[in-house]
Amino acid sequence: MSRRKIAVVVGFFILLAYIVLAYMFTDSKLIVVPSEVVAGLAVIGIAVLMYPFLRSSGEGLAFGYISLKFVEGFLMIVAGLFFLSSGVLFDMRNPIYVWHAFIFIFSAFAFYVLLYRSRIIPRWISVWGVVACVSLLIGSVLELFFSYQLLKLFYILIMANEVFLAGWLIVRGFNLEKV
If residue 82 lies in a helix (H) or strand (E), which one and from where to where? Predict the structure, then answer.
């Protein structure tokens, strides 16, 4: 697959990963379970496709990134499948998503640091991503102790960044001089 096609697929997968938010709009198992499984696979797919581009910018960090993304995707799939059950397994979805949030934050932080180092996208997008990760970490820690809906505002920065990054990759692709 060409570098251009990989950029488009990664951008599409980033958007597809947001299908996991379907649970916010419905309790339908026919929608939630497949959406969480697809989102988990998309997260893993992003990491697999990006790893070759990121490895030269920090092999250890890139390995940590791909490892965390596999765990994140697996947790999303498991949480989706637990939606089919009742009782204890169903109740485990929330703790799984607490873990998922922190794994996402640390893997996203590694991703944006690697993107910054690699220069395959404009650095300002990477800096925005790092700032968004720090914001999300603060919001997630606060959410462990407080349950204010206003804490959801901490999510906006990373969501905007990821949607923008997806659009950038689909429209502009990678900076091929740096690849």
Answer: helix 59-82
Distances in whole angstroms, Cα of residue 147 to Cα of each of 21, 141, 143, 155: 19, 11, 6, 14
pTM reported for the whole predicted model:
0.91
Higher pLDDT, 147 or 33: 33
Q: Which two tokens stand for residue 110?
A: 């590694």
| Residue 114: both structure tokens together | 């690697």
Q: What residue type is 102 in one-letter code?
A: F
Contact 157, 125 (CB under 8 A): no
Exposure of 87 by Cβ count < 10 A (0-12 exposed, 13-18 middle, 19+ buried)? exposed
Q: Could you read off the pLDDT of 92-139 as tens digits, one per residue?
A: 878 888 898 899 999 999 999 999 999 999 999 999 999 999 999 998
> CB-side exposure of 159: number of CA atoms within 13 Å?
10
How many CB atoms sit inside 10 A of residue 20's CB?
22
